[in-house]
Amino acid sequence: MKKNVAIFLSGGGSNMRALVGAMNAAHPGRPALIVSNDAQAGGIAWAKGQGLETLVVDHRPFQGDRVAFERAMLAALAPHKIDLICLAGFMRVLTEVFVSPWQGRMLNIHPSLLPKYKGLHTHARALEAGDQEHGCTVHLVTDKLDDGPILGQAHVPVEADDTPDVLAARVLKQEHRLYPLVLERFLNGITEPIFLNADLSQP
Ligand code: GAR
Q1: May I ask the CATH architecture of the domain 1-102?
Q2: Which atom of ligand 1 is nearest to the CA of 172?
Q3: Are the beta carbons of 91 and 129 closer than 8 angstroms?
Q4: Which CATH number applies to 108-203?
Q5: Tens of pLDDT, residues 84-99
Q6: pLDDT digits over 99-115, tens only?
């Protein structure tokens, strides 16, 4: 039986699209639910257009009460019989209230080679540090920010004239390769990390 995968996003959802695209007939998962904290997120409009089930829990009415927001998300999720959550550009920090019932069943993609550059502005920080390489990481989520066992990383080179936007685009392309691969491996019971290098011969 296929596993029901919920994908959480806050923006355009290009990683969500890559994950949905990978979940074909032979894949161990199905995109059961697309979740956002923002009804206006581009990813939600796209998912609706694809006929996918969507769920929005707006964080704004809960301002200052993260726990109440997380409890509302847990309650809204419960009827959907979800097996695994993929955070894919979900820009809310999750506390142990949400994480603990999902620990071991929730993945995240982060745009850096963790443990480097947890949090925001990862591309600018890699450039400021003069790093020669950068990349992205898929990991299991714990209640520590951008922490938890690493399931896969993709490396990209940093070029001399890179701006944060140029570097972000190079990394994002690799995110779209890495996340579907790690998801499929994880659903097949493989937790040993995989490391990819960008194939620069590809356009
Ligand atoms: C991606 O680069 C993802 O790694 C990052 O947000 C972007 C979302 O893009 N996530 C984080 O920074 C989480 N801390 P997308 O909406 O096009 O997938």
Answers
A1: 3-Layer(aba) Sandwich (3.40)
A2: 2
A3: no
A4: 3.40.50.170
A5: 999 999 999 999 999 9
A6: 999 999 999 999 999 99
